[in-house]
């Protein structure tokens, strides 16, 4: 096992964990930065806050879909939820490889991580699948809660609309979705930016969700620097 100073994206902060036989390791600095935070402390603080939010909307024995799971920043907290069935996916192969290596020995039966080789000019230029053609790796109407933090902040409009369509497909009738956006588009625009940062007017995003068959349950305001919305399937 490589130490915390390794330049490999599959390293970990084993110095903080001691033995990892029964303890989930921490990702290395490179993996942490790939999710946005620049320090381990920021990584854990933000993930815990988002976990607290997610956990408020989970039924008993929940089925959860983590859209853009990265190196398992929220998944590591969800391991404490009894009876959870978790699926996470991401375009970064080394993040998924790390998650499988770290989580499977401890939680393999209830947590599954899938790589989506989606094309992104900014983040995965060699990707072979267009995001608009990707089917989320879960069955129809099988998910109690889907969430995507700092994902729609990087999706072009056509791809964002597809992700909303797929979310509606996979949610149970009683299911919910938690999505975060940047909501300060360029003046005179409802949707602006590139894959490095997308901004969407809140009302426009709600309209996009409505087009996909999702409706607003609650505007949760700013959480961890992004505007967060709770949605559900339209009746």
Itemize the secondary structure elements and their pairings.
Elements: H1 14-17, H2 29-34, H3 40-55, E1 63-67, H4 75-78, E2 85-90, H5 93-107, E3 111-115, E4 143-148, H6 157-170, E5 171-181, E6 191-194, E7 197-200, H7 202-211, E8 214-223, E9 226-233
Parallel strand pairs: 1-2, 1-4, 2-3, 4-5
Antiparallel strand pairs: 5-9, 6-7, 8-9
List keywords for this structure.
single chain; 235 residues; alpha/beta; Rossmann fold; seven-stranded mixed β-sheet; two-stranded antiparallel ribbon; 9 strands; 29% helix
Number of domains: 1
The Rg value, from CA coordinates, equals: 17 Å
Q: Which CATH architecture? A: 3-Layer(aba) Sandwich
CATH fold call: Rossmann fold
Main β sheet profile: 7 strands, mixed
Determine the strand fraction and express it as a percent band.
Answer: 25-35%
Number of strands: 9
Structural class: alpha/beta
Poorly predicted sequence stretches spanning 5 or more consecutive residues: 1-8, 14-19
Element string (H = helix, E = strand): HHHEHEHEEHEEEHEE
How would you name the CATH homologous superfamily?
Answer: Vaccinia Virus protein VP39
Distance between the termini: 50 Å
The CATH class label is Alpha Beta
Order of neighbouring strands in the sheet with most strands: 3-2-1-4-5-9-8
Helix content: 25-40%
The whole-number mean of residue pLDDT values reads 91
Q: What's the helix count?
A: 7
What coarse outline follows from CA principal-axis ratios?
Answer: globular
